[in-house]
UniProtKB/TrEMBL annotation:
Boundaries of every Peptidase S9 prolyl oligopeptidase catalytic domain copy: 428-638
Protein name from the UniProt record: S9 family peptidase
Organism (species): Sphingomonas rhizophila
One Pfam family this sequence matches: Peptidase_S9
Keywords of the record: Hydrolase
Gene3D superfamilies in the cross-refs: alpha/beta hydrolase (3.40.50.1820), TolB, C-terminal domain (2.120.10.30)
InterPro entries assigned: 6-blade_b-propeller_TolB-like, AB_hydrolase_fold, Peptidase_S9_cat
Domain of life: Bacteria
One record GO biological process: proteolysis
Taxonomic lineage: Bacteria, Pseudomonadati, Pseudomonadota, Alphaproteobacteria, Sphingomonadales
GO terms assigned for molecular function: serine-type endopeptidase activity
PANTHER family in UniProt: DIPEPTIDYL PEPTIDASE FAMILY MEMBER 6 (PTHR42776:SF27), SERINE PEPTIDASE S9 FAMILY MEMBER (PTHR42776)
């Protein structure tokens, strides 16, 4: 018996293909990227009114309704140029405060409008300056505290603003170069933060808007992304901290202000704790958010433990608290089932009654939306990369999180990079999955929320290990049978745009194509042109990236800048940019486009003249995604809704490469729309 074993021939790897989606209707992109029917729903401090953003003549405006009759809502603003996005209730519930900038330039101005409607009145505005709302208290109904950098563009002075008259009173001239502030429930300044030359920061006590010269806490650079005070409770007697000193992940601590005694409230070895729910008037901690792969509310004490239990029983963990009345009796609850449109509910604590208010996007009800799968991927050096995978509807018959046959895949890279991807509805995931692609969104090293060691692992690793994490995520997907190596695209905005450019220049054979929105191409010019009011962050950016004041740092910045490697690009590239972007200026896109066109390397470049760091206007979002899905269809072979008139309705300008996208004008520098 026996004999020489016969070697088996390894099976050839399966090539990814778009699954049969003949039974899955093509989702119109305007259902995903047009303005929601209702969004940003909030309850007034006195609990009597609801507000939200909804379109008026095609532009997001502010609506108000009685809590007892949401159907009686009326628009209270009539903005026609820029969609509203940032708003909040005045503490007396008689008016709403609105922040607006100019076409995305982030020079924020503050306006007021009566809750009954009327003309928007300017509260605080100054040319080429930005207003920050620093403190609002339900116990102080007639005024708020704002910051304004009109005197010195690098630093915000503090002012008290009378909500009835708009009169502004100087509280503190910021000659001490303080970056952040913390107030108590009576709008008294209690803490001031000053960032240090080493990338860490000092905390100074304040009394009567006089800041003590000597700091009482010094937070080292290593803890600066994970350790911070969260706010005062116990009517100012307790200071809550998210604190990673002496540990990796940030735990929740309560510190007695008088004695300095520290009490550990909660901790988790996997994730930083920071999202604190507090009593609206006393500031006492009532619950916190644990956000590892998904978000979960956990009570602190018994004040709202029963209410959290009721919401969990009804919605699982697919909810979050949008806003609460000052007496804590009425809550707006936002439910995100992912495979269905988001819902808004009103929760009445005394009666425990839940009333469904409305859907955010009712036109998506019953549509074939895809699930999101949270997962963990190991990097080559052993880090855990919390990631999210979305698969085309109908491609995973046994619902095990792996398609029945490999499909083309798009890797999405989040911005920041000091931020994170999270579990929750994503119009981009839904569009791409509907077109036949898997979507993988990994949290690479430097992402926040997973402990200080994970953040620190990204220091100095732009274009290197941070990119390796993305490649490791792709390798995981290929080995798992999600996709094949030749059918993977990469895309992202801001840092994600940088990662896309880095991928196509530093690893030109690993991705089939790339999509960059507002991504920096030259790290030296990125740091040299950052907004003036980012001055307090400069030293930390230099330590986490490269310091252009030193030869070594300057060499690092140039080495990691895709613009100097443009000749290596061999795969299709689509670039989008907002002309008014103050963070990643238009020159970042122009530099790499120019470098490519000089070398006759094909690229498509779209400029939006009325946008900043991302796309706020619905026609621009729809038009951009029309181009994006056609670009990906050319690259990966998925389905696409024809561009049609979508791009013509936007403000987008085809600067270069329109002939490369079906449905765009072939002439260079041709402007579509207005």
């Amino acid at each position: 018996m026996g004999g020489t074993p016969v070697a088996s021939t390894p099976a050839a790897p399966k090539v990814a293909r778009v699954p049969d989606m003949s039974g899955v209707p093509l989702l119109p992109r305007d259902l995903l990227f047009g303005d929601a029917a209702r969004t940003a729903v909030r309850i007034s401090p006195d609990g009597s009114k609801l507000s939200w953003l909804a379109p008026v003549d095609g532009m997001l405006n502010l609506w108000v309704a009685p809590v007892a009759d949401p159907a009686a809502a009326k628009p209270v603003t009539a903005e026609k140029k820029r969609p509203l996005s940032r708003y909040f209730w005045a503490p007396d519930s008689q008016s709403l405060l609105i922040a607006l900038d100019n076409d995305g330039d982030e020079n924020w101005r503050l306006f007021s409008v009566p809750a009954t409607g009327g003309a928007m009145r300017t509260l605080v505005a100054a040319k080429d300056s930005t207003v920050t709302v620093e403190a609002i208290s339900p116990l102080v109904g007639d005024r708020i505290v704002v910051g304004l950098n009109d005197r010195d563009p690098k630093w915000h002075d503090l002012y008290s603003v009378d909500l009835a008259t708009g009169h502004r009173t100087l509280l503190l001239r910021n000659d001490g170069q303080y970056a952040r502030w913390m107030f108590d429930e009576k709008l008294n300044l209690r803490l001031a933060r000053k960032n240090g030359a080493d990338g860490g920061y000092d905390l100074h006590r304040a009394d009567g808007f006089k800041v003590e010269a000597t700091p009482f806490e010094t937070i080292a650079f290593e803890e600066s992304q994970t350790t911070r005070p969260l706010g005062f409770g116990g009517n100012g007697r307790t200071l809550y901290w998210s604190d990673a000193r002496g540990r990796d992940t940030a735990a929740l601590f309560a510190v007695d202000v008088a004695t300095g005694a520290r009490t550990l409230v909660a901790e988790d070895a996997r994730a930083d704790l920071g999202g604190l729910l507090t009593d609206p008037t006393t500031g006492d901690a009532e619950a916190f958010e644990l956000n590892y792969t998904t978000v979960e509310y956990r009570p602190v004490g018994g004040a709202i433990a029963g209410d959290i239990a009721i919401l969990k029983q009804r919605f699982g963990n697919d909810f979050y608290l949008g806003s609460r009345s000052s007496d804590n009796r009425r809550w707006v609850v936002v439910v995100d089932p992912i495979k269905a449109p988001g819902e808004y509910w009103l929760y009445d604590r005394p009666t425990k009654a839940l009333t469904r208010l409305f859907l955010s996007r009712p036109d998506l009800e019953g549509k074939p939306l895809a699930a999101m799968h949270p997962l963990e991927i190991k990097s080559r050096d052993g880090l855990t990369l919390v990631s999210y995978l979305t698969l085309p509807p109908g491609s995973d018959a046994d619902a095990d999180g792996v398609p029945d046959h490999p499909v083309p895949m798009v890797v999405i890279v989040h911005g920041g990079p000091w931020g994170r991807s999270e579990y929750g509805s994503s119009p981009t995931h839904q569009l791409l999955a509907n077109r036949g692609y898997a979507v993988l969104e990994p949290n690479f090293r430097a992402s926040t929320g997973f402990g200080k060691a994970f953040v620190a692992a990204g220091n100095g690793e732009w274009g290197r290990k941070m990119q390796d994490d993305l490649l490791d995520a792709v390798d995981w997907a290929v080995a798992r049978g999600v996709t094949s190596q030749d059918k993977v695209a990469i895309m992202g905005g801001s840092y994600g745009g940088y990662a896309t450019l880095a991928a196509l220049t530093m690893t030109p054979d690993r991705f089939a194509c790339g999509v960059d929105m507002v991504g920096p191409s030259n790290l030296e010019t990125l740091l040299a042109s950052m907004p003036a009011h980012w001055e307090s962050m400069r030293n930390q950016l230099y330590r986490r990236m490269g310091d252009p004041r030193t030869p070594e740092g300057l060499a690092w910045l140039k080495e990691r800048s895709p613009v100097y490697l443009a000749d290596r690009i061999t795969k299709p590239l689509l670039i989008g940019q907002g002309a008014k972007d103050p963070r990643v200026k238009v020159s970042e896109a122009e530099q790499i486009v120019d470098a490519m066109t000089r070398r006759s390397i094909p690229v498509t470049y779209i400029l939006f003249p009325d946008e900043g760091h991302g796309l706020r206007r619905a026609p621009n979002r729809i038009g951009w995604n029309a181009i994006q899905e056609q670009f990906l269809a050319n690259c990966l072979g998925g389905r696409a809704e024809p561009v049609g008139t979508s791009f013509a309705a936007s403000s987008g300008q085809v600067k270069v490469g329109g002939s490369l996208i079906a449905g765009l004008a072939p002439a260079e520098a041709e402007t579509a729309g207005k």
